[in-house]
Amino acid sequence: MSSTNDPFSQLLYPMLREQPSVDASVITQLSRAPLQKSAESNALRHQLFDASADQIVSCARAISTAVAGGGRVLACGNGGSATSAADIVSELLRPSGAGPAIGALSLTADIAVVTAIGNDVSYDDVFVRQLLALGRSGDVVLAISTSGNSENLVRAVREARRLRMLTVGIAGHDGGRMRADGVVDHLFIVPSTSVHRIQEVQTTLYHLLFELVQQHLMEVPTCA
């Protein structure tokens, strides 16, 4: 890699001719930031897991019972939570451990379907329409949100309950409408206002949850 001091680099990037000085205290603060943020996330993990340990185990057993009976996991979310939905689905379809693969669908994965429903019907119904077409009684709907207020997720869990599916929600802050509406069978809330910390803890939560599901499935027979 060529140096920024050579004539060609100076021609392309004249702003690099003079390097600004950085106070040592700024460097010290920057070096401490990752540790501080990690400590914040770990504190939230302890807070959530201490308060919800029994609920996590109960939810994992309910999911594994549904899966053992032939149910699938249908995951949904918006933005970064859509990535989380895709992440857990890929883990379930191809587990890294010894557990069995679990039938799962990410309702955010097919951009043609998502944009068609959003354009022709409403983005608020982008998950409901897929549940009507693909969902079955006994499936598990996993809704992931940092705020818990997304209209399309609230509508999705309502419809899932009407269709007699198990509903699992993972939210942040105070749980938003997902909590207020009381339409989620198992709701986990990361009590933070930081989107970054919420998503970090949510990732740990859903991986832990489905590790427990995998363990339970290895103990019980599944539906042929």
TrEMBL record:
This is SIS domain-containing protein. It holds the Pfam family SIS_2. One of its GO terms (molecular function) is carbohydrate derivative binding. It comes from Candidatus Amunia macphersoniae. CDD domains: SIS_GmhA (cd05006). Residues 63-219 form the SIS domain. GO terms for biological process: carbohydrate derivative metabolic process.
